[in-house]
Specification:
The chain has a 6-stranded mixed beta sheet, with helices on both faces. Strands 7-8-9 form a 3-stranded antiparallel beta sheet, covered by helices on one side. It is of the alpha/beta class and 266 residues long. It contains 9 helices and 9 strands. Helix content is 39%, strand content 19%. It starts with a strand and ends with a helix.
Length: 266
């Protein structure tokens, strides 16, 4: 049987992140990708110039259309944008009994600007995170979710424990935005096991879509029946190789190279 994954996220007109990155990642993993679009962005390698939220009813209808007919073995959330969409998605995840939910709590832009307001953050924390099999915040998002200042490995571990206590079954605090030796170091916590996951840092400015790609790869691996920790390790390996084949396009920060296995060496 073909495995199916669902992405509930925003559209990136530049093709580097959002549902475009998620669907590419699903395809590479030989998982059929489905989508529920939450918002449409006008963006490129230089940044985002406009964001338009879809009506809540549209997001809900997309989720129902996919799950009721096709069914999904895993799902991930990305850019949910506002409190109304977050609350509706959380309600539908429960109503539709969507399992293996990966929550990528997209809250901060590439320039460090907060993308969602405090009421949306509260809904993310109280309604969606408790339904997640894993939450994958970067260090900035972990700071917002916990109120901690995160500059050290110890702080990353504290943040992982704090987010776990918000109800998620596991947490991966990502260190891609950390400085020095912590760059690329992630912290895993599932209530029992605290692990420091390290991969070789890739020297490239073209890193757009890494967070979306990682969470989509975790979801794809879960759809393929990998256990959660293995799904995370496999996803990290995939993202590292995709960074090694990142695309030097546009005038700013290009995306990772999702299809490196098909396109060969640069």
């Amino acid at each position: 049987m073909v495995k199916v994954a669902l992405t509930i996220a925003g559209s990136d007109s530049g093709g580097g992140a959002g549902i475009q990155a998620d669907l590419r990642t699903f395809a590479v993993h030989c998982v059929h990708g489905t989508s529920a679009v939450t918002c449409v962005t006008a963006q490129n390698t230089l940044g985002v110039t406009r964001v338009d939220a879809l009506p809540v009813e549209s997001v809900v209808a997309q989720m129902w259309a996919v799950v009721e007919d096709i069914g999904v073995q895993a799902a991930k959330t990305g850019m949910l944008l506002n409190q109304e969409i977050i609350a509706a998605v959380a309600e539908q995840v429960e109503s539709l009994k969507i399992a293996n939910l990966v929550v990528d709590p997209v809250m901060v832009s590439r320039t460090g600007a907060q993308l969602i307001d405090n009421s949306a953050i509260a809904s993310m924390r109280d309604l969606l995170i408790p339904q997640a099999i894993i939450v994958t915040p970067n260090c900035y998002e972990a700071q917002i979710l916990t109120g901690l200042e995160i500059h050290t490995l110890d702080a990353m571990q504290q943040a992982a424990r704090s987010i776990y206590n918000q109800g998620a079954k596991a947490v991966l605090v990502k260190g891609g935005g950390m400085k020095g030796d912590l760059r690329g170091v992630d912290v895993w916590f599932d209530g029992q096991q605290m692990e420091t996951l390290t991969t070789k840092a890739v020297d490239t400015n073209n890193t757009h879509g890494t967070g979306c790609t990682l969470s989509a790869a975790i979801a794809a691996n879960l759809a393929l029946s990998q256990d959660l920790f293995t799904a995370v390790e496999s996803a990290k390996s995939y993202v590292t190789t995709a960074l090694q084949h990142a695309l030097n396009i546009g005038k700013g920060q290009g995306p990772v190279g999702h299809f490196f296995a098909l396109c060969g060496e640069k």
